[in-house]
Structures are given as C-alpha cells and as structure tokens.
Amino acid sequence: MVLFALANSGLPGTSGFVGEFLVIIASFKANVWFAVLAGTTLILGAAYSLWLVKRVVFGDVGNAQVAQLQDINGREALILGSLAFVVLLFGLWPAPLVEVMQTTLHNLVAHVAVSKL
Length: 117
Known about the structure:
The protein has one domain (2-113). It is 78% helix and 0% strand. It has helices spanning 2-9, 15-30, 32-56, 64-67, 74-92, 95-113. Helix 2 (15-30) packs parallel to helix 5 (74-92).
C-alpha cells in the first residue's frame, strides 16, 4: 500500500510521477499560473496520501474485527506484486503508453482547437 500511495504522490520512478510531470509541463506551456495551480494541487494530494498512509498503515487499530484479519495469502501477494511491477515499469519506461495515446490525443487536440464560432 505504501508503494501505491507513493506512486499516487508522484514519487520519481513510478507511474504517478510520469503523469504528474506531463501535467505540469502541459500546464506550464498553456499558462504559468495554471502550472502553479497544478503544482499546488499535486502537493496537496501528496500530503493527503502520506497522511492517509500514516493513519491507515501505521496507526492504531480501532476495531477488534479488523485486528483479527489475517495478512495476505500467496495469490494476493502475486497480484499485488504484478501491479507493483507495472507501476514501476511504466514509471521507468512510459513510452509504450505514451505512444498508444499519442494518436488519440492529437485527434482530440485538433477537435478542441477548432473554433465553434
């Protein structure tokens, strides 16, 4: 859970960082104030994610039924490990996703750029 929360916070080397970096670059090209606003919201989102991890993972268990739950089994560990691998893979090598989205995004930008007047 901590890895996924850090990826959500935009830790370099994770898929969340790539997305946040692309958002900051695109908003900076549009307007500096958009980039400042985007950066501020990203910082607030990261702070909330870290606060959530602190309370959920490292906090006290307030319910007896939750305290009795068992740790994950091998099947769940395999699935979470696969997801963690994908988060790290696309954080270190985002080209496959960017290439797939490129044609669609160019088409979308072409439609949005056309004036309706």
